[in-house]
Amino acid sequence: MKSLKIMGAVMVAVALYIGCKTEVVSENSVFPALEPLNADTNAGTWKPILLSKPDEFAVNNPIAVTSADYKLELLEIKSRQNNITDEERDMMNYWSAGVVLRWNEIMRELVAKYNLPPYQNPDGTYPIPSAANPLAYPFFPFANPPYAARAYAYLSGAQYDALVAAYHYKSKFRRPRPAKTDPSIKQLIPMTSDFVYPCEEAVAAGASAAILTLMFPGEQEFIQTKLTECTSARILAGGNTRSDIDAGVALGKAVAGKFIARARTDGAGKAVGTPTDWQFLKDRTEARGEIAWLSQETPARPPMLPLFGKVMSFLMDTTEVINSRPAPPPSTNSAEFKKELEEVLWFSQHPDRDRMKVVHFWSDGAGTYAPPGHWNDIACEDFVKQRWSEARWARNLALLNSSMFTAAVCCWDAKYYYFNPRPSQMHPDCKTLTGLPNFPAFTSGHSTFSGAAAAFLSHVVPNQASKYMSMADEASKSRLWGALHYRSDIEVGMAMGLAIGGKAVDRAKTDGAE
Amino acid sequence: MLVFGVNIQAQTDMDGLMMAKRNLCGGIVVGQSKWDHYWEGTLYRNNLNIGTFQSQMAMAMANYGVSNKFNIIASAPYIENHSTAGTLRSQKGLQDLSVTGKWEFFGKGYKHAYVSLLALGTITTPLTNYVADYLPLAIGMQSKTASGKLMIDIQRNRWFATASAQYTQRGTVTIDREAYYTTEMIYSHLVNMPSVFSSNVRLGYRKNADLIIEAVYDRMNTLGGFDIRRNDMPFLSNNMEASRIGLNWKLPVPKIAGMSWMGNATTTIAGRNMGQSHILMTGLVYQGEFKAKNSPKK
């Protein structure tokens, strides 16, 4: 029967369509095990960020590898290896890509999870998340771009200083790998160093877990689980014994303590400001004869972290931030401003699909890992190919994230010093192609972050420099194309970012790692 | 189709009627869907930064009788989505082409009723490269889909009941971002779309094929997906559910043989991660070959 044939053809078509369903593989799940090309055994001599010296925090002498206690530790490895499950093997392989990398990813995931603006109160005001009560709505933190930039910088900075200390002690104690003492121990993943006390992975993990707990206090259980998995993976892999790990986690936490003490006094806790501060910003701008920024949300939301420009970053102090503040954007009364607004309006009204793709690629708005997270993502994907030691991974992420933390501070300083309106505020048809951030326009955060990141990354992965520069340029333009920023915002932001990235490069040239 | 909030195949893939061999029916349907409340997960809320979401649609459709027992139906909508508040730019464009094969594989008259069983297969494919990762304003999901549906239709005199159940597999969607968060971070441009199960019950009166008045209950839910987080935007692979009730009609246009006026009014009574859509649609359909009547039904 004819209709049966046709129905058969339809069934075949349907079957082909079902073939459209491809498996979605997260790119980070296939990163290879880390096998450093250079062990960087001198990393204990590199210049730390906050530590006064690599042995600022003491590490106990290890027990002798000939001792009965050590033999018991070896037995633990053998027993875990004999009973290894598929799940444990997956976990071990996951962590083998590098612990600095994996903890960076965990931070990105938590930023994305917490990067949501709180819902308003019934009276139209907004609740402010509280670190003292992180589990009650609104959850603490609201991991917005400046919060995220700072969090990534503390994480990477603590990882780096902790690893400088770890490499110092490893070279000092020179405890061999477990398999050297007991050849029956299998090394199930590539080993990154010859000396294993304290365990460098555990040092980085201990530091990371402590910083993550500070930044995401509602996630302690999750963080603790990751810490246990990360250190268990070392035992399963035959890379370390229990005492390597215990000494490592303790050292990592001690180093992180120094960063935590600094974070508690760096000014970020006050960056939300008060209604008096918010009013002052508006009044100051209006007193200059300029139109002041207004929230385009309903109900009007207080500006995001208006005092973040006063936070102490790692690369510039507050005086330098003020001294490097850019000249003002075009006056809202000027012909130049009108011209810039018209340009934004044109992009808003002509949303070409190719430009939209760029706008959305770089949107990095609410619910994402934020622009600094995007640059960590880009960097890590390239770093995996570089096959660096854990210490070099940490050092390069520390400088990358220091530059973006400083970019956030300088950018926020300019935004709130000038407090100028977004294009949508100035023209009712300046509709945006992605979410409009709730803070002033000048300078563009995306441009400042991207300039800083691209300048530093070009220094450490020079064969990708042109790629980083064109990506930064796209990220910057995406904000004009998306009708979120004027041309001045993106151009001045980019110049600021490049200069800040240059400061990270200057530091890189003198920290002993090159 | 989910974006518009209702199956907009102009009912022809939902009803139990068949077109006779070599008959061609074509039509234009316009519609509007509106909501000012939605479900964020299971939380029913409004959003002052969306205001009222409004979707307008114009769709061309055609139905051809390959045989008395096998019809092919095709449709393609043009959609414009707009929100009355907030700063986001409206979206518009040609959405997805949908092609359905409809096969009446059993039909028998009993003492009191005529019973038919139908099998339907539908494939859809995006017609343009519209932006999908821009909900709720995106005009579609940018997913190729394949559906299978079984339907039973019982008619007694001029009263009838139709029930159907449909399973839809949705192809992976490529978005512009290179990483996104669901309940975990995923580093990929690809988004896995949960499948959709939907069911539909209709009761009504019909005389020939051009006078139909029916009440409809419709329910769809994705098989998997995640909830929108508190105060987040919706995402393509959300766990979506909607239950709707509506009234459909198809009436002959006087003095123009073959021309019918059709329409429906539908409202959403429950949902999850979707807008509470209120939908109105109306259209004109013209049946091209007059000699052959619709397939015999008692």
Main sheet attributes: strand count, strand direction, barrel closure of chain A: none
Biggest sheet: strand arrangement of chain B? 1-4-5-7-8-9-10-15-16-17-18-19
Helix proportion range of chain A: 55-70%
CATH architecture descriptor of the largest domain in chain A: Orthogonal Bundle
- According to DSSP, the number of beta strands of chain A is 0
Number of strands of chain B: 19
Shape-level CATH architecture of chain B: Beta Barrel
Tally of discrete structural domains of chain B: 1
- SSE-based structural type of chain B: mainly beta
Secondary structure tally, helices of chain B: 0
CATH fold category name of chain B: Porin
Regions with little confidence, pLDDT below 50 for 5+ residues of chain B:
1-10
**What's the CATH topology label of the largest domain in chain A?**
Vanadium-containing Chloroperoxidase, domain 2
What spatial form of chain A do the alpha-carbon principal axes imply? globular
> What is the overall silhouette of chain B?
globular
Strand content of chain A: under 5%
Q: Any low-confidence stretches of chain A, pLDDT <50, length ≥5?
A: none
Distance between the termini of chain A: 78 Å
Strand content of chain B: over 45%
List key phrases describing it:
heterodimer, A: 514 residues, mainly alpha, Vanadium-containing Chloroperoxidase, domain 2, 2 domains, 19 helices, 0% strand, globular, B: 298 residues, mainly beta, Porin, 12-stranded antiparallel barrel, two-stranded antiparallel sheet, 0% helix, disordered N terminus
Question: Can you describe what's shown?
Answer:
Chain A is mainly α and 514 residues long. Chain A has two domains: 36-56 and 65-264, Vanadium-containing Chloroperoxidase, domain 2 (Orthogonal Bundle), CATH 1.10.606; 270-510, Vanadium-containing Chloroperoxidase, domain 2. Chain A has helices spanning 2-18, 68-82, 86-96, 99-114, 145-173, 178-181, 200-215, 220-236, 242-264, 275-287, 318-323, 335-349, 353-361, 370-386, 390-418, 423-426, 445-460, 465-481, 487-510. The termini of chain A are far apart. Chain B is mainly beta and 298 residues long. Chain B has a single domain, classed as monomeric porin ompg (Porin, Beta Barrel). In chain B, 0% of the residues lie in helices and 58% in strands. Chain B has a twelve-stranded antiparallel β-barrel with strand order 1-4-5-7-8-9-10-15-16-17-18-19. In chain B, strands 2-3 form a two-stranded antiparallel ribbon. Chain B is globular. Residues 1-10 of chain B have low confidence and may be disordered. Classes of the chains: A mainly alpha (514), B mainly beta (298). At the A-B interface, α1, α4 and α13 of A face β8, β9, β12, β13 and β14 of B.
